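Please review the protein record below. Tell me whether the encoded fold seems credible here:
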Amino acid sequence: MRYKHTICIFLMFFSLILYLPAMGMAAEGSDWPTYKGAWFSIKYPPGFRVRPSLKSRDAITGYDSAFFVSPQQEVEFYVFSPHWSGEPEDIKIDPNRELLVSENIERKGNKNVRTVTVKDKAGKYVRSWIDTQDTLANTRLVFGIKYKDQASYNKYRKQYLIFKNSLQQFSD
């Protein structure tokens, strides 16, 4: 009798595991569309528009960076993930339109980590990015977020973290 009870509990547990994804409890972001750059892939929230930006210097086709814009244009995610190091020219500060709010540079082992926040002079947006350069491996990775106000940032923060964590980088 005890043996049957254990099997019954196991079957109920196994059924629950199979049922949870159907209830919308699948791994966060697992059902998101995937964008494939030249040397990376990344998942982005459904409904976002993809805008590839910098063509890859090291691949025949594909891009090293892309922007992902929310449906109401409240927020924009960014990734720069080239094969080797490179320059994310598409997020440079525009001194005619933007003001530097903060900049911090830290050395973590072989990595230089630069955190930057700028704001639009007209108050239309704030954008921040984390630029990580590995001087030993000669690689670079940049993640950024642009948002119209704090409420928009708060609304999309969790999705931004899932976006960042979904990055898969390729090599030769």
Q: What stands out?
A: The longest strand covers residues 98-108. Residues 1-26 have pLDDT under 50 and may be disordered. Helices lie at 2-19, 150-165. The beta strands are 34-36, 40-43, 49-52, 65-69, 75-80, 98-108, 111-120, 126-134, 139-147, 168-169.
